[in-house]
Amino acid sequence: MSSASGPVLGIRDLNRAFLARQWLLRRKDAPALEAIEHLVGLQSQAPNPPYIGLWTRLVGFRHEELSRLIVGREAVRIALMRSTIHLVSARDCLWVRPLVQPVSERAFNGSYAKLLLGLDLVEVVAAGRTLVEERPRTFSDLGLELQSRWLDRDAHALSQAIRTFVPLVQVPPRGLWGERGQAVHTSAQAWLGRPIDESPDTGELFRRYLAAFGPASVRDAQAWSGLTGLQAAAERLRPELVTFRDEQSRELFDLPDAPRPEPETLAPVRFLPEFDNALLSHADRSRIIGEEHKPRVFTVNGIIRGTVLVDGFVGATWKLRRERAGVAVEVEPFTELTVAQRNDITDEADGLLVFVADGVPLGVRFNPET
Predict the structure, then answer these.
(1) Considering the domain boundaries, does residue 271 fall inside one?
(2) Which of 124, 142, 210, 338 has most Cβ atoms within 10 angstroms of its Cβ?
């Protein structure tokens, strides 16, 4: 048991502080790029969830604002935290990517390195960089091109070596609302016309994490980033941070002036998209979802379902159901809802349907009916 000192924060204290940092207590009147940077990116395995994630957090957000940022090279899609695709600002891409390089290498070593034993990876990576900077390529195309040179090697493993050791961004139209197409990649340096930061600051990453996800433990920050060894960064920053304890006496760090609302602060209904970082960024996720509900959200095939926050906590899953007559939001509550909660969910779902706007809105359907 930790010997941490400081005031104890209960689950609702942590929940309300977290919602405030995530701009989920009230929508923020701010540009999309500011939101992307404040959140240190949005998880983006699929192209559309970041748009919904911004809609649920920002006043008046429109699809074209994010699409313009991607086309204008102010925001990019790149493998970062936990070696998963995130949508981040160009500025953050250039210094966060080198910080999480050990995470990419750990994933590569666990899955692909054995298939490339004996190869000069420096030579392979140089060849791969030349290919993706010659023109953006899919991983399939890249792997086959490299395999034409290293004939006896697995094409996918070769392409993943480039993904690991070259910071690759996915270029548009991938990531644009309503667009289709495969992910094609080039280097961040070629796409942005700027070099990768050679001396990024782990302490700054920890500060940024606390601003968006705190109060939090070192273990929480490591679960979010995939990095190990963040305790040293926390210790360096300790004089400028404040500390708390959770109900298990684990030490929590925070920025002194970060918002920590009262635990009874009203929390509105919010729809979170698939893969939203609000559900993926702590070792202890009890501040946002109960242990008993996780199997209904985190699927065995790696999908993290869209969720509905009710009184600040995950209380339902949701999905769009497209029918011949139009589009409905299907909500599957975990427990029986009050009339007021159903009405609030319906109101928020109506707004979501207006935002997705790719068919006649049919309203919300509760499944099963409660």
Answers:
(1) no
(2) 142
